[in-house]
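Appendix C: a fully annotated inverse folding record. The material below is reproduced so that readers can follow the format used throughout the book. The structure is listed first as C-alpha cells, followed by the designed sequence.
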C-alpha cells in the first residue's frame, strides 16, 4: 500500500458490507525511511481534516522524548509507550473525546505481545485502523516480540525495501562498533549503537544467529 493511499484503504468493507478497520505492519531493515513514511501518512490524514494519534517508545530518546523524527528532517510529537502502557485504554479514551481516524506507531518492534493484541481490539472493537512501523529482527537475526506478533496478526504486511552495500536487497540489521566491525554479543535492545542494513548473505546469518548451525564441509 502506498503512502498516498493510506487514507482510502485503511478501512474496507467485508462481504456483509460492514466497515472493517485493519492492523497494518510496515517493516524494513534499518534506515529504509520507515519514520518518514509514517509521518507522510499522518500528514495525509490531517490534511483531510482527520484526527490521528501517534505513539513512539519511551526507550528511544535519540531525537528527544516523545518525538518521531526522520533522517530527512520530518518530525512530529507523539505519545510515549512503555511495556506497561495499556494501549487499548489510552486509544479508547482519546477516541471518545474526539473521533480518531487512525493510530500510527513508530518503532513497533518494541511493543509487547499483549500490546499487539490490544491493537487488534482497537481495530475490531473501536473501528480505528492502526498503522505500525518497525524492524522485524535484531542484530543477531532474532525476531523482536512486537514484530513477531504483528507478522502473525496484522491483516496487511508491507515491506519497505532498502539496499545492502553489496547491491542486494537488505533484510538484516547489523550492529557495528566504532570501527565498523560487526558486533555479535549484547542486549537485544541497546539504543545509541550504530547499525547498518545488510543482505542476509553479507550479514552471515549462520555465524551470527544464536540458533547455532555450521554448514558441513564437503564429503
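Designed amino acids, in order:
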Amino acid at each position: 500500500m502506498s503512502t498516498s493511499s493510506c487514507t482510502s484503504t485503511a478501512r474496507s468493507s467485508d462481504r456483509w458490507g460492514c466497515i472493517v478497520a485493519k492492523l497494518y505492519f510496515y517493516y524494513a531493515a534499518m534506515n529504509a525511511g520507515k519514520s518518514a513514511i509514517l509521518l507522510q501518512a499522518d500528514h495525509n490524514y490531517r490534511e483531510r481534516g482527520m484526527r490521528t494519534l501517534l505513539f513512539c517508545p519511551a526507550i528511544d530518546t535519540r531525537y528527544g522524548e516523545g518525538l518521531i523524527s526522520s533522517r530527512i528532517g520530518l518530525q512530529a510529537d507523539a505519545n510515549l509507550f512503555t511495556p506497561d502502557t495499556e494501549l487499548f485504554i489510552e486509544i479508547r479514551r482519546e477516541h471518545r473525546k474526539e473521533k480518531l481516524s487512525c493510530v500510527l506507531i513508530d518503532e513497533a518492534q518494541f511493543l509487547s505481545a499483549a500490546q499487539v493484541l490490544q491493537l487488534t481490539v482497537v481495530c475490531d472493537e473501536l473501528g480505528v485502523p492502526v498503522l505500525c512501523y518497525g524492524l522485524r529482527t535484531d542484530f543477531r537475526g532474532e525476531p523482536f516480540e512486537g514484530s513477531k506478533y504483528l507478522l502473525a496478526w496484522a491483516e496487511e504486511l508491507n515491506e519497505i525495501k532498502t539496499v545492502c552495500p553489496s547491491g542486494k536487497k537488505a533484510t538484516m540489521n547489523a550492529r557495528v562498533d566504532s570501527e565498523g566491525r560487526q558486533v555479535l554479543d549484547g542486549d537485544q535492545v541497546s539504543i545509541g549503537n550504530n547499525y547498518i542494513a545488510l543482505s542476509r548473505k553479507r550479514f552471515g546469518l549462520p555465524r551470527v544467529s544464536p540458533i547455532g548451525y555450521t554448514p558441513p564441509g564437503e564429503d
